[in-house]
């Protein structure tokens, strides 16, 4: 029996189509010798290639915060909730013009190894209900990754 190979790029493109997201990206943790640096490795719906130059440390930016806390992040209106003057701390939001987005941690071997970000370029288009439905549909597994946070109240 041949095992199906999980393709992150194909999967995020499927997610983008299924939910009509404007942007979907996966940031992965680089080797420990790079001090757990996070980089956006797989994206779809991007407006530019600026994501390739974004490098985040734990606790910085969306990916860094989700990586550090191991908890999902939901923002309905980036300008209002993060503050326009503070957006420079969230380079992927600025680079892609995201206005509402959500991110979930991706675990492997009981450690956060990546972050899955979904979003829209319109304020309040991502609702709590849509974010919960997205999390539910992703299920407990995302290829080699899994989520401890997938159990919804």
**Average residue-wise pLDDT:** 86
Strand content range: 25-35%
Task: Determine the CATH superfamily.
Answer: GAF domain
The CATH architecture: 2-Layer Sandwich
What profile does the largest beta sheet have? 6 strands, antiparallel
Description:
- By secondary structure, the protein is α+β, with helices and mostly antiparallel strands.
- It has a single domain, classed as Beta-Lactamase.
- The protein has five helices and eight strands.
- The strands form two sheets. A six-stranded antiparallel sheet has the order 3-2-1-6-5-4, with helices on both faces. Strands 7-8 form a two-stranded antiparallel ribbon.
- A hairpin with a 2-residue loop joins β5 and β6.
- The model has no long low-confidence stretch (mean pLDDT 86).
Write the topology of this structure.
Elements lengths: L7 H12 L3 E7 L8 E7 L10 E2 L4 H9 L3 E3 L2 H6 L7 H6 L3 E9 L2 E10 L7 H11 L2 E2 L2 E2 L7
Antiparallel strand pairs: 1-2, 1-6, 2-3, 4-5, 5-6, 7-8
What labels would you give this structure?
6-stranded antiparallel beta sheet, two-stranded antiparallel sheet, 8 strands
């Amino acid at each position: 029996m041949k095992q199906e190979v999980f393709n992150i790029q194909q999967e995020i493109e499927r997610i983008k189509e299924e939910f009509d997201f404007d942007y979907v990206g996966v940031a992965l943790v680089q080797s420990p010798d790079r001090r757990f640096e996070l980089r956006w490795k797989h994206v779809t719906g991007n407006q530019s290639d600026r994501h390739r130059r974004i490098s985040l440390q734990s606790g910085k930016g969306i990916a860094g915060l989700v990586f550090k806390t191991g908890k999902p992040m939901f923002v309905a209106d980036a300008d209002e909730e993060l503050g326009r003057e503070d957006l420079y701390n969230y380079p992927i939001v600025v680079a892609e013009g995201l206005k509402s987005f959500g991110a979930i941690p991706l675990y492997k071997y009981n450690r956060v190894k990546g972050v899955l970000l979904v979003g829209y370029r319109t304020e309040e288009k991502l609702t709590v209900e849509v974010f919960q439905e997205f999390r539910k549909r992703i299920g407990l597994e995302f290829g080699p990754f899994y989520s401890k946070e997938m159990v919804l109240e």
